[in-house]
Amino acid sequence: MATTYFFYDLETSGLNPRDDRIMQFAGIRTDADFNIIGEPYNLLVALNDDTLPSPSALMVTGITPQKTVSDGYTESQFAKIFIEEICSPDTILLGYNNIRFDDEFIRALLWRNFYDPYEWSYKDNRSRWDMLDVVRLTRALRPENIKWPTVNGVAVNKLELISKINNLEHTKAHDALSDVEALIAVTKLIAKTNNRLFNYLLKMRNKKEIMNLVNVKNPKPFVYASGRYDAEYNKTTVAYPIAMADYDNMFVYDLRYNPENWINKSNDEIIEILQTPFLERDKQYTHIPVKKIQPNRAPAVAPIGVLEQNDGWNKIKIELNDVENNIKILKQNPDFIDRIAKILLKRPDFTPQADAESKLYDGFINNQDKLRSEVVRNLDQNQIKQYNPEFEDSRLKQIYPRYKARNYPNALSSDERIEYDEYRKNRLNRQLPGFLKDLTEQSKITNLSSDQKYVLEELNLWMESILPDSDI
DNA sequence: TTAACACG
């Protein structure tokens, strides 16, 4: 089958992919030339009664929980549509900041509903891409022929600002389908005006392609656009792979900066710099110019040859001499690289997720449990009453009764009902303080629109309707 | 084959 793009966007109940939920999904399929194929998708997903959404998030989207319940699909119905219709073979799924945001919500939703969280984005010649980093690198290297927005003199890459300044159709920002239409328009504009860079980055969405260009065994300087780099230089620099990080990830050094600023610092000093909280960093603070690159997240990278054309070196304000000199210093100080890598690798001690529904990254599901998951997905109301799958993975054992309660509440035994209510009570009590604080703050905003006031009223009613009686 | 968050 021919390759198609599927552009998509979500509106969610908050910012945390494992605690918050998808409330709206919109997407449009196009052919390789961005001609629309078929009808757009624009659907709501019913918020479950175990979730208090973030009021400030809903003030942006305008979607109420009640609306998703009355007009939306259940999560499992949506998962089926997503997997069976949207993720057809040979589809490139893409959005705007989707790799760090929307895709994570998709994974978490599939995980809760007994679908594989990853196959949708790699199997059957499917892949994923993200226009945000494409926009960043285009702006840095080939900005001609496109207008670029700034806010207070700072370069910003918000989708609605890019579409507006270029007179592209964008009827309503933060409406999912409207954002998708704007994204397609921006994508077409970049593909048309910068075809070579666009097609190069399209090819580079593949993890193996990235690892050919960026690797520690044969390190070469490369151009790299990332949200972590300064807006002043259009989020783009020349970086250099210095050490392996976790998995296939690598630490890369930002060659804009001379390593001599840090090589004589002790481990304790380096640790202190790395651990200084953002708010405590003063004017003197100089962050260590090392970051992790993740090849499976379609980072926007290119060989430094691209800087030879169109005045590239000047555009990102770096000189070849400095690049060569800084590489030389790095090579002369291998122990500096070792120390930085060791310190950075030691850092991520995340507190473990408490709940199985948040534990999708604790490990892959084995093939037997995948088959059991498939059986679960195909159970109907009557079958699920009797069925008790013998999952080997303890996470799936814990998720199963939730799945049952949400999708087939009438199939619950009285014990299962009690268990689900207990889970619901705990989760809601955890969410309640933050919810109330946010709700109070939002209510104090003076110039609320009537739509926003309506959202806040509905949020109050939602809270009252789902909180267990004893807590009202 | 697929993964790793919790900003800076």
Structure description:
With 472 residues, the chain is α+β, with helices and mostly antiparallel strands. It folds into three domains: 1-196, Nucleotidyltransferase, domain 5 (2-Layer Sandwich); 206-349, Exonuclease ExoI, domain 2 (PX Domain); 356-471, no CATH class. Helices cover 44% and strands 14% of the residues. The strands form three sheets. Strands 3-2-1-4-5 form a five-stranded mixed sheet. β6 (150-151) and β7 form a beta hairpin. α6 (159-165) crosses α7 (176-193). The structure holds one DNA strand of 8 nucleotides.
Layout of helices and strands:
Layout: E1 4-12, E2 22-30, E3 36-44, H1 55-61, H2 65-71, H3 75-86, E4 91-95, H4 102-112, E5 127-130, H5 131-141, E6 150-151, E7 154-155, H6 159-165, H7 176-193, H8 195-203, H9 207-213, E8 222-225, E9 236-244, E10 250-254, H10 267-275, E11 290-293, E12 300-303, H11 312-315, H12 320-332, H13 334-346, H14 367-377, H15 381-386, H16 394-407, H17 414-444, H18 450-466
The chain binds one DNA strand of 8 nucleotides through residues 16-18, 104, 107, 116-119, 121-123, 227-228, 246-247, 249, 277-279, 281, 287, 294, 296, 348, 350-351, 353, 358, 360-364.
